[in-house]
Predict the 3D structure of the following.
Amino acid sequence: MIKSHPSEAILYQYASGDLSASMTLVVGTHIDMCSICKQTVCEIEEELCKKHLDSIVETICAPDKGSMSKSQCDQMLEAIFNSQVKPAVQREDLISLEGRRFNLPTTLAHNAHRIGEWTHLVGKLWRAPVNLSDDGQTNLIYMEPGAQVPEHSHKGQEATLVIDGVFNDEHDAYYDGDFILLDADRKHTPRTATEDCLTLATLDAPLFFTSGISRLLNPFSSLFFR
Amino acid sequence: MQTVTSHTSQRGVMTTSQQDTAEKAAQLLAQIAESRSRQAFSELFSHFAPKLQAYGTRQFGNEQTAMDLVQETMTNVWHKAHLFKADKGSPSTWIFTIARNIRFDLLRKNKKRKDDISADELWPILAEQNDNLDDDYALDQDILLQEISHYYGQLPDAQRIVVEKIYVEGKSQQEVSDSLGIPLGTVKSRTRLALKKLKELIVEHD
Ligand SMILES: [Zn+2]
């Protein structure tokens, strides 16, 4: 019962390959968990294929006309037949933290080797960076039961995906597979109750904490999203 | 080629000749996968290379990079033809998604980042073991379906219903979550508990 999905515009950019690496990871991991978006993306890919490939009328490597000559084609075929298979990306399907084990959806499993060390933050919060060598900052965030992230707003957009568990903010409750995109001016206070929660989050600018006490925690923002 | 037909009847736009082309391309891919047929690949290549080249030229505005896109895309097709699944979509859509990934890599290569993320990681469409990955708790190999059907009646109702839907009716965990109106996390934990319980039951009776 995933109720919070990426917009169709985001899915279109995902299928076109136009999102940043970090957003592609978060949206792709949602799609692994969401049969509805998976179907939508398949349909968008069909549309894109019609637009970019099927509509092209040149269909053969002609001897002397067209954009690819016969000799160019033959040369390339030779290179392809002599090429080596690229080594496959290694996937890891499980991660452990605090005695809990979590199954990683396919896309995240293929990036498990990019997950850094877990750091215990304040209270009941843990963070591990996902090193994508991207402009955005991407992290796994683990909230133990009864955890609370200080109220904050963002300078940029924050995308959060629930991998396992449930968390609440003042707007709603979010379960496995829910994808939440928050704009720059939206304030929120994520917290857990009796269940714990593992999320994947990406941010394209540092967080600003807004509530009194947590202003003191501002250095925390650089810890949280790095 | 059932899927191609059902996919398109939904949209009702593909012509018969396009269907023939799709069917032909699927046959060629199967030949490449089964017998590494260079003949079949050359035929597929002459159909798709000019299309890919046009796509690349429009994307990059650069002839050389467009040719790189053609070569790298078709190299993947040559090595990974066995990963094409006719029931999941048309050959040209599959090839398009490979080209989309190569484009992503070529765009980033221009930025020269160290240890850069690759499209293979972000869209693992060419991973070898991609079946059943959606089901986090795909049936443990040491539990046979037969054994499950023998013992699942002994599970508590809540777990039994979930196991029945997943392993007997073949539903995904998401579908079970939707049809029972319970969170996916609950379906997962019930499945986990049920499989644990089933293992115990099977060991006990062995
Ligand atoms: Zn969705």
In short: Residues A 2, 5, 30, 34, 36-37 surround zinc ion (CB under 6 Å). Chain A has a mean pLDDT of 83.
